[in-house]
Amino acid sequence: MRRFATPAPAILVALLALPGCGYSLAGKGNFLPEYIATIAIPTFANRSDRVSVEEVFTRKVVEEFTARGRYKIQAAEAGADAVLSGAVLSFVSTPTVLEGGSASDAQSSQASTYTVIVRAQVQFKDMVKDNVIWSNANFQFRDDYEIGENPEEFFDQEGLTLQRLAEEFAKSLVSSILEAF
Asked: pTM for the whole thing?
Protein backbone atom coordinates (compact mmCIF):
# COMPACT_ATOMS: atom_id res chain seq x y z
CA MET A 1 0.00 0.00 0.00
CA ARG A 2 1.35 3.38 -0.99
CA ARG A 3 0.80 6.53 1.08
CA PHE A 4 0.68 10.00 -0.42
CA ALA A 5 2.04 12.80 1.65
CA THR A 6 1.78 16.49 0.89
CA PRO A 7 5.20 18.00 1.11
CA ALA A 8 5.52 20.30 4.12
CA PRO A 9 7.19 23.12 2.15
CA ALA A 10 4.21 23.31 -0.26
CA ILE A 11 1.77 23.68 2.63
CA LEU A 12 3.94 26.33 4.26
CA VAL A 13 4.12 28.35 1.03
CA ALA A 14 0.32 28.15 0.61
CA LEU A 15 -0.29 29.34 4.18
CA LEU A 16 2.15 32.23 3.84
CA ALA A 17 0.39 33.40 0.68
CA LEU A 18 -3.01 33.70 2.42
CA PRO A 19 -2.40 36.97 4.31
CA GLY A 20 -1.66 38.73 1.02
CA CYS A 21 -5.12 38.05 -0.39
CA GLY A 22 -6.43 41.53 0.43
CA TYR A 23 -8.64 40.70 3.39
CA SER A 24 -8.24 42.13 6.86
CA LEU A 25 -10.08 41.76 10.13
CA ALA A 26 -12.95 44.19 10.58
CA GLY A 27 -11.74 47.18 12.52
CA LYS A 28 -8.09 46.47 11.72
CA GLY A 29 -7.70 47.54 8.09
CA ASN A 30 -6.42 50.88 6.87
CA PHE A 31 -6.61 52.08 3.29
CA LEU A 32 -5.77 55.73 3.90
CA PRO A 33 -2.65 57.18 2.29
CA GLU A 34 0.47 56.90 4.45
CA TYR A 35 0.99 60.68 4.54
CA ILE A 36 -2.23 61.21 6.51
CA ALA A 37 -1.07 61.49 10.11
CA THR A 38 -3.17 64.36 11.47
CA ILE A 39 -6.95 64.40 11.14
CA ALA A 40 -9.08 67.41 12.00
CA ILE A 41 -12.52 66.63 13.37
CA PRO A 42 -14.34 69.90 13.98
CA THR A 43 -17.62 69.75 15.90
CA PHE A 44 -20.36 68.52 13.60
CA ALA A 45 -23.11 70.92 12.58
CA ASN A 46 -26.52 70.38 14.13
CA ARG A 47 -29.46 70.69 11.76
CA SER A 48 -31.76 68.65 13.99
CA ASP A 49 -34.07 69.98 16.66
CA ARG A 50 -32.20 68.03 19.36
CA VAL A 51 -29.94 70.23 21.49
CA SER A 52 -26.25 69.20 21.75
CA VAL A 53 -26.60 66.02 19.68
CA GLU A 54 -23.70 67.17 17.47
CA GLU A 55 -21.40 67.36 20.49
CA VAL A 56 -22.12 63.77 21.50
CA PHE A 57 -21.61 62.43 17.97
CA THR A 58 -18.40 64.41 17.44
CA ARG A 59 -16.96 63.27 20.78
CA LYS A 60 -17.68 59.61 20.00
CA VAL A 61 -16.06 59.89 16.55
CA VAL A 62 -12.95 61.48 18.09
CA GLU A 63 -12.83 58.70 20.71
CA GLU A 64 -13.10 56.01 18.03
CA PHE A 65 -10.30 57.49 15.90
CA THR A 66 -8.18 57.92 19.04
CA ALA A 67 -8.78 54.28 19.99
CA ARG A 68 -7.29 53.24 16.65
CA GLY A 69 -4.08 54.86 17.93
CA ARG A 70 -2.43 55.77 14.66
CA TYR A 71 -3.58 59.34 14.08
CA LYS A 72 -3.21 62.67 15.79
CA ILE A 73 -6.71 64.11 16.18
CA GLN A 74 -7.38 67.83 16.48
CA ALA A 75 -10.40 70.13 16.22
CA ALA A 76 -8.76 72.80 14.03
CA GLU A 77 -8.44 72.25 10.29
CA ALA A 78 -5.18 74.25 10.07
CA GLY A 79 -2.22 71.91 9.65
CA ALA A 80 -4.33 68.76 9.23
CA ASP A 81 -3.65 66.20 6.49
CA ALA A 82 -7.36 65.29 6.37
CA VAL A 83 -10.62 66.74 7.64
CA LEU A 84 -13.68 64.79 8.77
CA SER A 85 -16.72 67.06 8.68
CA GLY A 86 -20.31 66.20 9.39
CA ALA A 87 -23.79 67.39 10.20
CA VAL A 88 -26.53 65.74 12.22
CA LEU A 89 -29.55 66.22 9.96
CA SER A 90 -32.30 64.83 12.17
CA PHE A 91 -32.98 63.18 15.50
CA VAL A 92 -36.46 61.70 15.73
CA SER A 93 -37.87 59.84 18.72
CA THR A 94 -41.20 58.12 17.97
CA PRO A 95 -43.39 55.98 20.23
CA THR A 96 -43.68 52.52 18.72
CA VAL A 97 -45.43 50.46 21.42
CA LEU A 98 -48.42 51.74 23.36
CA GLU A 99 -49.68 50.18 26.58
CA GLY A 100 -52.76 50.75 28.70
CA GLY A 101 -56.09 52.12 27.59
CA SER A 102 -58.19 50.47 24.92
CA ALA A 103 -57.77 50.29 21.16
CA SER A 104 -60.57 52.82 20.73
CA ASP A 105 -59.14 55.18 23.36
CA ALA A 106 -55.56 55.90 22.24
CA GLN A 107 -55.44 59.04 24.40
CA SER A 108 -55.34 57.00 27.61
CA SER A 109 -52.50 54.80 26.28
CA GLN A 110 -48.90 55.41 27.24
CA ALA A 111 -45.86 54.69 25.10
CA SER A 112 -43.62 52.00 26.55
CA THR A 113 -41.16 51.73 23.66
CA TYR A 114 -39.65 54.45 21.50
CA THR A 115 -37.61 54.22 18.31
CA VAL A 116 -34.91 56.83 17.74
CA ILE A 117 -33.66 57.50 14.22
CA VAL A 118 -30.66 59.74 13.60
CA ARG A 119 -29.60 60.89 10.12
CA ALA A 120 -26.25 62.50 9.41
CA GLN A 121 -24.15 63.75 6.51
CA VAL A 122 -20.38 63.05 6.64
CA GLN A 123 -17.34 63.78 4.46
CA PHE A 124 -13.66 62.79 4.83
CA LYS A 125 -11.38 65.01 2.76
CA ASP A 126 -7.68 64.59 1.95
CA MET A 127 -6.30 68.11 2.40
CA VAL A 128 -2.90 67.27 0.88
CA LYS A 129 -4.34 66.23 -2.50
CA ASP A 130 -7.53 68.27 -2.10
CA ASN A 131 -9.97 65.46 -2.83
CA VAL A 132 -12.79 63.70 -1.01
CA ILE A 133 -11.78 60.20 0.04
CA TRP A 134 -15.14 59.14 1.49
CA SER A 135 -18.59 60.63 1.98
CA ASN A 136 -22.13 59.64 2.85
CA ALA A 137 -24.99 62.13 2.56
CA ASN A 138 -27.46 59.92 4.45
CA PHE A 139 -25.78 58.04 7.28
CA GLN A 140 -28.73 56.61 9.26
CA PHE A 141 -28.90 54.87 12.62
CA ARG A 142 -31.78 53.67 14.76
CA ASP A 143 -32.30 52.18 18.18
CA ASP A 144 -35.25 51.24 20.38
CA TYR A 145 -35.61 51.83 24.09
CA GLU A 146 -38.25 51.07 26.69
CA ILE A 147 -39.41 53.25 29.53
CA GLY A 148 -40.97 52.10 32.76
CA GLU A 149 -43.90 53.41 34.73
CA ASN A 150 -41.95 56.47 35.87
CA PRO A 151 -42.14 59.27 33.26
CA GLU A 152 -38.73 60.61 34.37
CA GLU A 153 -37.16 57.42 32.98
CA PHE A 154 -38.06 58.62 29.48
CA PHE A 155 -35.29 61.24 29.51
CA ASP A 156 -32.76 58.89 31.09
CA GLN A 157 -33.41 56.18 28.49
CA GLU A 158 -33.39 58.63 25.62
CA GLY A 159 -30.00 59.94 26.74
CA LEU A 160 -28.58 56.42 27.01
CA THR A 161 -29.97 55.61 23.58
CA LEU A 162 -28.28 58.71 22.18
CA GLN A 163 -24.95 57.53 23.63
CA ARG A 164 -25.39 54.04 22.11
CA LEU A 165 -26.37 55.50 18.73
CA ALA A 166 -23.36 57.82 18.76
CA GLU A 167 -21.00 54.92 19.62
CA GLU A 168 -22.37 52.74 16.81
CA PHE A 169 -22.28 55.69 14.42
CA ALA A 170 -18.63 56.36 15.29
CA LYS A 171 -17.55 52.71 14.94
CA SER A 172 -19.29 52.34 11.61
CA LEU A 173 -18.02 55.68 10.30
CA VAL A 174 -14.39 55.12 11.25
CA SER A 175 -14.42 51.58 9.88
CA SER A 176 -15.98 52.79 6.64
CA ILE A 177 -13.29 55.43 6.21
CA LEU A 178 -10.30 53.33 7.23
CA GLU A 179 -11.35 50.13 5.50
CA ALA A 180 -12.55 51.77 2.27
CA PHE A 181 -16.14 50.50 2.43
From this structure: 0.72
